[in-house]
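Is this the right way to post structure tokens for a design question? Let me know if I should format differently. Anyway, here goes:
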């Protein structure tokens, strides 16, 4: 039986913390920044914990 391969693209987008939570960059900070207020862009900086709905799918893609 061949080994399970982890999804390399997902590995570049998310990070698993020591406690097992999955954190990723928030969406919406790549383009059209002139239209967005400074408050909104400031709020979007940093990483956030991925929602519970997506956690199982992402962990499967990472081979965990």
């Amino acid at each position: 039986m061949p080994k399970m391969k982890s999804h390399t693209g997902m590995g570049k987008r998310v990070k698993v913390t020591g406690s097992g939570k999955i954190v990723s960059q928030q969406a919406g900070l790549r383009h059209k920044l002139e239209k967005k207020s400074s408050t909104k862009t400031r709020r979007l900086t940093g990483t956030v914990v991925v929602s519970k709905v997506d956690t199982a799918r992402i962990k499967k893609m990472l081979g965990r």
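Format looks fine. Someone answered above. Worth noting: The chain is about 35% helix and 15% strand. Residues 50 and 63 are 17 Å apart (CA to CA).
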